[in-house]
Amino acid sequence: MADPVAEKSAFLCMYMSNHPDTLVAYAKWFGEVKEPITSAKMTGITTKTISLLCTFKDGSKRDVDVPIEPPLRDYDDVKPRLLEMKARRSRRTRDAPRIDTFVFPTAAIRPGILITLCVIAHWAPENSPSPFAIPINFARQYLGTKPFAFSFWFTVVVHVLESLYTISLCWRHSTPFFVGLQYVGATLYFGFPIWNSMRKRVQGARINSVMTMQ
Protein backbone atom coordinates (compact mmCIF):
# COMPACT_ATOMS: atom_id res chain seq x y z
CA MET A 1 0.00 0.00 0.00
CA ALA A 2 1.41 3.41 -0.99
CA ASP A 3 2.34 5.82 1.79
CA PRO A 4 -0.26 8.65 1.65
CA VAL A 5 2.22 11.25 2.91
CA ALA A 6 5.21 10.18 0.81
CA GLU A 7 3.10 10.67 -2.33
CA LYS A 8 2.96 14.42 -1.59
CA SER A 9 6.45 14.67 -0.15
CA ALA A 10 7.78 17.00 -2.86
CA PHE A 11 5.20 19.69 -2.08
CA LEU A 12 5.85 19.46 1.67
CA CYS A 13 9.61 19.71 1.13
CA MET A 14 9.13 22.84 -1.00
CA TYR A 15 6.85 24.40 1.64
CA MET A 16 9.23 23.67 4.52
CA SER A 17 12.19 25.14 2.62
CA ASN A 18 10.99 28.51 3.96
CA HIS A 19 11.35 27.31 7.56
CA PRO A 20 14.98 26.17 8.03
CA ASP A 21 14.92 27.21 11.70
CA THR A 22 12.03 24.84 12.40
CA LEU A 23 13.83 22.01 10.58
CA VAL A 24 16.98 22.60 12.63
CA ALA A 25 14.86 22.34 15.78
CA TYR A 26 13.34 19.07 14.56
CA ALA A 27 16.84 17.67 13.97
CA LYS A 28 18.07 18.72 17.42
CA TRP A 29 15.08 17.89 19.60
CA PHE A 30 13.51 14.96 17.77
CA GLY A 31 16.46 13.68 15.74
CA GLU A 32 18.76 14.02 18.78
CA VAL A 33 21.59 15.67 16.84
CA LYS A 34 24.23 17.00 19.23
CA GLU A 35 26.62 18.76 16.79
CA PRO A 36 26.01 22.45 15.97
CA ILE A 37 23.81 22.75 12.86
CA THR A 38 23.78 25.83 10.63
CA SER A 39 20.91 24.83 8.34
CA ALA A 40 18.62 21.96 7.44
CA LYS A 41 16.63 20.95 4.37
CA MET A 42 13.71 18.52 4.25
CA THR A 43 14.38 15.89 1.60
CA GLY A 44 11.37 13.66 2.26
CA ILE A 45 8.55 12.78 4.62
CA THR A 46 6.46 9.67 5.20
CA THR A 47 3.88 8.69 7.78
CA LYS A 48 6.72 7.58 10.07
CA THR A 49 9.77 9.71 9.30
CA ILE A 50 10.96 13.20 8.35
CA SER A 51 14.16 13.01 6.29
CA LEU A 52 16.50 15.99 6.68
CA LEU A 53 19.81 16.97 5.13
CA CYS A 54 21.67 18.89 7.83
CA THR A 55 24.64 21.20 7.28
CA PHE A 56 26.97 21.46 10.26
CA LYS A 57 29.20 24.24 11.50
CA ASP A 58 32.33 22.55 10.10
CA GLY A 59 30.76 22.51 6.62
CA SER A 60 29.95 18.79 6.56
CA LYS A 61 26.50 17.45 5.70
CA ARG A 62 24.60 14.45 6.97
CA ASP A 63 21.20 12.84 6.47
CA VAL A 64 19.11 12.79 9.63
CA ASP A 65 15.89 10.82 10.07
CA VAL A 66 13.41 12.31 12.53
CA PRO A 67 10.86 9.77 13.80
CA ILE A 68 7.20 10.76 13.83
CA GLU A 69 5.61 9.22 16.89
CA PRO A 70 2.90 8.10 16.76
CA PRO A 71 2.89 7.66 12.96
CA LEU A 72 0.64 9.86 10.84
CA ARG A 73 -2.63 8.26 9.74
CA ASP A 74 -2.92 10.19 6.47
CA TYR A 75 -1.96 13.43 4.71
CA ASP A 76 -4.45 15.48 6.75
CA ASP A 77 -2.46 14.68 9.88
CA VAL A 78 0.72 16.34 8.57
CA LYS A 79 0.00 20.01 9.28
CA PRO A 80 -1.37 19.63 12.84
CA ARG A 81 1.45 17.25 13.78
CA LEU A 82 4.19 19.52 12.43
CA LEU A 83 2.60 22.45 14.27
CA GLU A 84 2.44 20.37 17.44
CA MET A 85 6.13 19.50 17.13
CA LYS A 86 6.93 23.15 16.52
CA ALA A 87 4.93 24.19 19.60
CA ARG A 88 6.79 21.66 21.74
CA ARG A 89 10.07 23.12 20.48
CA SER A 90 8.90 26.71 21.02
CA ARG A 91 8.29 26.09 24.71
CA ARG A 92 12.03 25.46 25.07
CA THR A 93 13.34 28.27 22.90
CA ARG A 94 12.67 31.94 22.30
CA ASP A 95 10.50 31.80 19.19
CA ALA A 96 10.57 35.55 18.47
CA PRO A 97 14.21 36.73 18.71
CA ARG A 98 14.85 40.46 19.02
CA ILE A 99 16.37 42.32 16.05
CA ASP A 100 18.39 45.28 17.40
CA THR A 101 20.28 46.50 14.33
CA PHE A 102 19.55 47.38 10.72
CA VAL A 103 21.57 45.58 8.04
CA PHE A 104 21.27 46.71 4.43
CA PRO A 105 21.42 43.67 2.11
CA THR A 106 23.60 43.93 -0.98
CA ALA A 107 20.85 42.06 -2.85
CA ALA A 108 18.81 45.29 -2.73
CA ILE A 109 21.29 47.30 -4.81
CA ARG A 110 20.25 46.05 -8.26
CA PRO A 111 16.48 46.37 -7.62
CA GLY A 112 17.19 49.82 -6.17
CA ILE A 113 18.80 50.93 -9.43
CA LEU A 114 15.81 49.67 -11.43
CA ILE A 115 13.38 51.40 -9.08
CA THR A 116 15.33 54.66 -9.36
CA LEU A 117 15.15 54.45 -13.16
CA CYS A 118 11.42 53.76 -12.90
CA VAL A 119 10.91 56.86 -10.73
CA ILE A 120 12.96 59.05 -13.09
CA ALA A 121 11.14 57.71 -16.15
CA HIS A 122 7.79 58.57 -14.61
CA TRP A 123 8.59 62.00 -13.16
CA ALA A 124 11.09 63.39 -15.66
CA PRO A 125 9.71 66.44 -17.55
CA GLU A 126 8.50 65.71 -21.07
CA ASN A 127 10.96 66.54 -23.85
CA SER A 128 13.59 67.55 -21.35
CA PRO A 129 16.67 69.06 -23.06
CA SER A 130 18.98 67.35 -20.58
CA PRO A 131 21.32 64.81 -22.21
CA PHE A 132 20.42 62.39 -19.36
CA ALA A 133 16.79 62.44 -20.54
CA ILE A 134 17.56 61.32 -24.10
CA PRO A 135 16.85 57.60 -23.42
CA ILE A 136 13.62 58.51 -21.59
CA ASN A 137 12.44 60.80 -24.40
CA PHE A 138 13.22 58.09 -26.92
CA ALA A 139 11.28 55.44 -24.94
CA ARG A 140 8.31 57.77 -24.42
CA GLN A 141 8.22 58.51 -28.14
CA TYR A 142 7.58 54.85 -28.98
CA LEU A 143 5.85 53.56 -25.83
CA GLY A 144 4.02 56.60 -24.55
CA THR A 145 3.82 57.58 -20.88
CA LYS A 146 1.27 55.02 -19.66
CA PRO A 147 3.66 52.06 -19.24
CA PHE A 148 5.95 54.19 -17.06
CA ALA A 149 3.04 55.50 -14.99
CA PHE A 150 1.67 51.99 -14.51
CA SER A 151 5.10 50.64 -13.48
CA PHE A 152 5.59 53.47 -11.00
CA TRP A 153 2.19 53.21 -9.27
CA PHE A 154 2.23 49.42 -9.28
CA THR A 155 5.61 49.53 -7.52
CA VAL A 156 4.30 52.06 -5.01
CA VAL A 157 1.28 49.91 -4.11
CA VAL A 158 3.34 46.72 -3.77
CA HIS A 159 5.99 48.40 -1.65
CA VAL A 160 3.40 49.98 0.65
CA LEU A 161 1.90 46.53 1.27
CA GLU A 162 5.39 45.10 1.85
CA SER A 163 6.09 47.92 4.31
CA LEU A 164 3.00 46.94 6.30
CA TYR A 165 4.37 43.40 6.49
CA THR A 166 7.73 44.79 7.62
CA ILE A 167 5.97 46.74 10.38
CA SER A 168 4.48 43.45 11.60
CA LEU A 169 7.95 41.84 11.58
CA CYS A 170 9.39 44.76 13.56
CA TRP A 171 6.55 44.54 16.08
CA ARG A 172 6.92 40.79 16.48
CA HIS A 173 10.67 40.96 16.96
CA SER A 174 10.77 44.04 19.20
CA THR A 175 13.02 46.18 17.03
CA PRO A 176 13.99 49.57 18.52
CA PHE A 177 12.02 52.46 17.02
CA PHE A 178 14.87 53.87 14.88
CA VAL A 179 15.87 50.40 13.61
CA GLY A 180 12.26 49.67 12.73
CA LEU A 181 12.02 53.01 10.97
CA GLN A 182 15.05 52.09 8.86
CA TYR A 183 13.58 48.71 7.91
CA VAL A 184 10.16 50.14 7.03
CA GLY A 185 11.64 53.08 5.10
CA ALA A 186 14.03 50.82 3.20
CA THR A 187 11.21 48.40 2.36
CA LEU A 188 9.10 51.28 1.10
CA TYR A 189 11.80 52.05 -1.46
CA PHE A 190 13.62 48.76 -2.12
CA GLY A 191 10.82 46.29 -1.39
CA PHE A 192 11.29 42.52 -1.14
CA PRO A 193 15.07 42.27 -0.55
CA ILE A 194 14.78 44.25 2.71
CA TRP A 195 12.10 42.28 4.51
CA ASN A 196 13.44 39.01 3.09
CA SER A 197 16.84 39.81 4.58
CA MET A 198 15.19 40.58 7.93
CA ARG A 199 13.35 37.25 7.85
CA LYS A 200 16.62 35.40 7.19
CA ARG A 201 18.21 37.19 10.16
CA VAL A 202 15.30 36.09 12.32
CA GLN A 203 15.67 32.49 11.13
CA GLY A 204 19.41 32.61 11.83
CA ALA A 205 18.75 33.93 15.34
CA ARG A 206 16.24 31.14 15.96
CA ILE A 207 18.75 28.52 14.78
CA ASN A 208 21.35 29.95 17.16
CA SER A 209 18.79 29.87 19.93
CA VAL A 210 18.01 26.23 19.23
CA MET A 211 21.67 25.22 19.18
CA THR A 212 22.54 27.00 22.44
CA MET A 213 19.69 25.34 24.37
CA GLN A 214 20.52 22.18 26.27
Shape: elongated
Rg from Cα = 23 Å
Secondary structural class: mainly alpha
What percent of residues are in strands? 5-15%
In short:
The chain is mainly α and 214 residues long. The protein has helices at residues 9-16, 20-30, 78-90, 109-123, 134-143, 146-172, 177-190, 192-212, and strands at residues 37-45, 49-56, 61-67. The chain contains eight helices and three strands.
Structural notes for this entry:
The protein has 214 residues and is mainly alpha-helical. 56% of the residues lie in helices and 11% in strands. The protein has helices at residues 9-16, 20-30, 78-90, 109-123, 134-143, 146-172, 177-190, 192-212; strands at residues 37-45, 49-56, 61-67. A three-stranded antiparallel β-sheet has the order 1-2-3. The chain is elongated. The two termini are 40 Å apart. 22% of the residues are buried.
